[in-house]
Amino acid sequence: MSDEAKAPPKQAVALSYDGKSAPTITAKGRDLLAEEIIAVAKEAGVYIHQDEHLSNFLQMLELGETIPKELYLLIAELIAFVYMLDGKFPDQWDNVHKKITEQV
Asked: Which residues cross the membrane (predicted)?
């Protein structure tokens, strides 16, 4: 059996978050559609998180559906990490990110 035959099908799920309500499923797909979703996201500069188990779970949701409460913490951590990658930090951190950068 070739490596390609052993590999699980490629899949992708896109989430939208407006900062007010729970993130919602805006796109999902497998194989060629997944590749297109990923390509569009990369083109737009969207960060991509690869987690097969999370993707498998999110694939079960319908388009437009909000993520379940059980995923709030996990998705919130991913969103917070992306904000930090973009240099966005909460005001109450008192510019701790600048202090970290100065030490590096």
From this structure: none
- Amino acid 95 reads N
Q: What sign has the CA pseudo-torsion 18, 19, 24, 25? A: positive
CATH number of 3-103: 3.40.1690.10
Residue 15 has pLDDT above 70, yes or no: yes
* Vertex 23: Cα angle to 18 and 29 (nearest 5): 120
> How many CB atoms are closer than 10 A to CB 28?
20
For residue 16, give every residue at least 6 positions away whose Cβ sits within 8 Å of its Cβ, in sequence order, or none: 23, 24, 26
Tokens of 19: 């900062």
Euclidean distance between CA atoms 75 and 52, whole angstroms = 14
Which residue do the tokens 């950068």 mark? Answer: 101
Site of tokens 């973009």: 86
Question: Which residue type occupies 24?
Answer: T
Q: What is the model's pTM? A: 0.71
Residue 55: Cβ within 10 Å count: 18
